[in-house]
Give the backbone structure.
Amino acid sequence: MTPDLPILIVLGAVSIASALGLLLSRNAIYAALFLVLNFGVGAVIYLVLNAPFIAVVQVSVYAGAIMVLFLFVIMLLGAERLSPGENPPGISFQRPLAIALGGVLLGLALYALFVRQPPTTATALADSSPTAIGLSLFGPYLFPFEVVSILLLVAMVGAVVLTRNR
Amino acid sequence: MDSTTFVALLSSVLFTIGVLGVLLRRSALLIFMSVELMLNAANLAFVAFAHRWVQLDGQIFVFFVMAVAAAEVAVGLALIVTIFRTKRSTNVDDLAALKG
Amino acid sequence: MALFILSPILFPLLGLLINALWGRRMSERAIGGVATLAAAAAFVVSMLMLGQLTAAEDARLTATIAPWIAAGALNVSFGFLVDRLSIVIMLIVTGIGTLIHMFSIGYMRGDERFQRYFIYLNLFLASMLTLVMADNFLVMFMGWELVGLCSYLLIGFWFKNLKNAEAGRKAFVVNRIGDVGFVLGILLIFVTFGSLSFADVFGQAEAQGETLAGAIGLITLLLFIGATGKSAQIPLFVWLPDAMAGPTPVSALIHAATMVTAGVYMMTRASALYELAPATQAIVALVGALTAFVAGTSALRQLDIKKVLAYSTVSQLGYMVAACGLGAFIAADFHLLTHAFFKAALFLAAGSVIHGIEHGMHAAHNSAPVDPQDMRYMGGLARKMPVTFAAFLLGGLALAGVPPLSGFFSKDEILLDAFKHNLPAFALLAVSSVVTAFYVGRQLTLVFAGRPRSEAAAHAVESNWLMTMPLIALTIGTVFAGLFNFPGAHPLTDWLAPVVRHGDAPKFDAPLAAVFSALAIGALAIAWFLYRNPDRAQAEAETGMGRLLAKAWCFDDAYRWAIVKPFYIISTVCAQVIDVGVIDAAVNGVGRLFHTLGNSLRSLQTGFVRNYGLVMLIGVVFVVAYFALNAR
């Protein structure tokens, strides 16, 4: 029992609720907003887990940029009204099988977490300040960092090319 | 139960909800959001274990995942827009050209 | 020097190439001219070689062009050899070949595949010369197969008529049976002597003949099986009468004068081996004599002008083979030489007759079409076609063995040898000799004597000079070829003695010769007397014995019942039961299995992305399960 746990339980409950909201909502706008909520809660969990840099990036990139983009597209296309999830034509038992498989997946995770009991070690505070992360990014991870910048450039060009009016 | 285990558990629940979203929803936009949810769940696990093992690399990895997710969203949404232009729909069941 | 030795082969090949490449744009005369000139050039070169060979007794021209097969102990090269034996055959092949090329220009005029005909003819010359000039068994076999190919192509030359194509196929198949024997013989030669070159093999055989007697006996027997195919001996002679389906000049060149004597040439070449195998010799002599008898009697009842000559050829080949069996290899060669002349003359004359009758059919518009080769519709052609008649008469008399024509001398040598060494063979050969004279008389009477028995025959005219010139030349050869081994002088024997085994040199036996001459003339006279009434030929063919002879002792029927039918049944079973029921079923079954599998699996591929996602999730669950349950 660690002191953080009650906070985490509350945050986890909100997170799961917002995820379920996403799964079940009938309006794409609501779904997007549930996802924003989920991401925000995620940012708080990062803070609790001593990862302030990731928490900030989560807010700015995910909750900010990505979800704004989603909302923008939804409104642009006028596609906010959704029909509820249905079995697609094709495999008739898609929905029950998907739910069952999801259950199996969850069960496997629970088994791995509780039955196999990963070894616990004392939690020490590592230096996870933005400074340390910056040093790491521009030190040992410089090459992947540069690759990511090219990836983003390519994605940008790709998005422009794909949506260009011909 | 310590906080790491709890976050890992939360992560697996969120991931499963994301999977179900991908498999059960018909709208390409919702499917896409579910994918983002799954990525986020994975990020949570990364950070939780980085916390547990006092390693910075987990957080670095999350940073990269976010960058890739951003790129993916850019291209993915562009694709959805393009498809919508031709099909007038974001329903993936209308895109059944892969039939054998 | 190598080029000079090869040139008899190269000239026909050159003619072939010219005709094949530019023949389409050349006139018929030009095509025929090129081919004839190529043959003539080969003849001239052969004459030059003859001049070189007269220099010394053991003179030989050899050329090794390139190694062919070098594998372990087996070492064969494209080696060529011209010695006193091969030059004789080469002169026959090229000399008679040239005349027949020339004759063909007239005979084949207007044929739609004129160009192809001369290409084949030149190819035949080149192949035959390869066979003759080989210095080892394998090159000889190559030539042997090539002439077989040419024979097949030319028998079935008018393949649009199914019967001709079938005749070609029959010749091909029957010859392959003999070739199996030949190949086995060659293999055994290699196993026994470790070499295939004539010089090595015969040298070794001479040196250690006694110790290898068994192997040599088997080798000679196998080689003889090859000879029975190519030289049309019992039991494989059945293809030659059918081979008359080809153009008549081809029958003259390939199926009378040259190719069919290849077996005799081969046995003569291997005389050193045959001399060491007395048991084989006895078999060869008997088979040859029996063939001479069976084929000779079969010729008695044929109504087709060419079939008579075909059976006659088989019969005369029987004489040559019998001579080989008696050890009289030079006598065999002598008969080969004279036979080449008189049988080529006979065939060309027959071709001229057929040509004349066909011409007569066109000239007499209102006449019923008749088979231009059927002797029942001929008659009285002596006056219409005097040159042809003269050639046929002299050729026929030579064949019958009437002195002083060439056939008399050569046949007499063989009979004398048989009389001295092998009385059963002699009896058969003697009877065939009389029979020969009889069917010659029958044929001469039916074709040329009396009055024309059809409109076509009445309107027949003599062929043009392109056809009569070679006829005259061959007739001159027919008359004088006997001089090559004239009794008392025996120049051919002296010429061949250094390279060919000949036992005791045959001497002329005047009483025997006189008896057989008298018999021949008598038989001719009787035939003349009997067949002046042409209906007799028709009536005879309908008696039981006549039918048996007309069908050549029913060899064909026997083969049909004993071999072809059972084989056909086996093939049918294989094709309709085993192939359809087992092989096809297995192949189709595999196909159907995957078709069914695919059909059942294809419902999984719905085209809906979410379905694919589901399937992917199944995989993901398994992977995760593996790590969650197993991995540390």
In short: Residues 71 and 77 of chain B are 10 Å apart (CA to CA). The interface with chain C takes residues 19, 22-24, 26, 31, 92-93, 95-100 of chain B (CB under 8 Å).
